[in-house]
Design brief:
- The protein is of the alpha/beta class.
- It has one domain.
- It is built from 6 helices and 8 strands, in the order E-H-H-E-E-H-H-E-E-H-H-E-E-E.
- The chain has an 8-stranded mixed β-sheet with strand order 3-2-8-7-6-5-1-4.
- Helix 1 crosses helix 4.
- The protein is globular and about 50 Å long.
Length: 225
């Protein structure tokens, strides 16, 4: 079976995560999810957010996942298309995202179908949180099993690159406002999560605003193809 237990690798030194709450203030653990890292006094620590996002996807809980999707910018879902181009879909909520996956007949048609299957074959009680600095590692060279957290690289140009490439392909003019919106969205990314099972690697990008973490971009392009 390709789906193996995995480790969650967390970088050191995230600002705002130094202070901890007392043991009595720790959120109650459910469904086997572990919470071994200190809890910040901020509204939502990154560690808790990542676990909540994984749990919401595992359960396909739309309401729970929507708590971590930015109301204004939504969630950008990037996937491969035929040829050398990529497609970028923007979802205001997770309902259409899950529907899009459920209607796909094969993993190759929609990689989220594969990822949800991966989540559902992993024992969530086996989460282990380890500190390691993975700054600057390329997702496409990252073939280890598990979840690995990275400080964001200074220059994420995925959304604007895809937009400009597709506009050029289709002979369309670049809309300055759209380019600015996409640039602001990708520049606001703070944390990067590599998700790999040893065969494929996907990348999630998270943003923090007003002490709340949101899932900003899901790069679901298979690095092996």
């Amino acid at each position: 079976m390709r789906f193996l237990f995995f480790a969650l690798i967390v970088t050191i030194g995230l600002s705002g995560c130094a202070s901890t709450e007392s043991e009595s203030e720790q959120p109650e653990q459910t469904d086997g999810l572990q919470n071994e890292m200190p809890v910040s006094r901020s509204t939502s620590t990154f560690e808790n957010t990542l676990q909540a996002v994984i749990k919401a996807m595992k359960n396909q809980d739309e309401a729970a996942l929507d708590e971590y999707i930015d109301i204004e910018n939504g969630l950008f879902f990037v996937e491969s298309t035929q040829g050398a181009y990529s497609e970028c879909l923007n979802y205001e909520s997770s309902a259409k995202l899950f529907l899009y996956s459920s209607e796909a007949s094969e993993y190759e048609v929609n990689p989220l179908k594969y990822l949800l299957d991966y989540f559902n074959n992993v024992d969530m009680a086996e989460f282990e949180i380890v500190e390691e600095d993975l700054f600057g590692r390329e997702a496409c060279n990252f073939q280890e099993k598990g979840f690995f957290l990275d400080s964001n690289e200074a220059d994420v140009k995925m959304l604007t690159d895809i937009y400009q490439m597709n506009a050029e392909r289709d002979g369309l003019d670049i809309e300055p406002n759209e380019l600015l919106k996409l640039g602001d969205t990708q520049n606001a990314v703070i944390k990067t999560v590599f998700i790999g099972d040893g065969e494929v690697t996907y990348t999630f990008y998270f943003t923090e605003k007003n002490n709340k973490w949101t899932l900003t971009i899901m790069d679901m392009r298979d690095c092996d193809t």
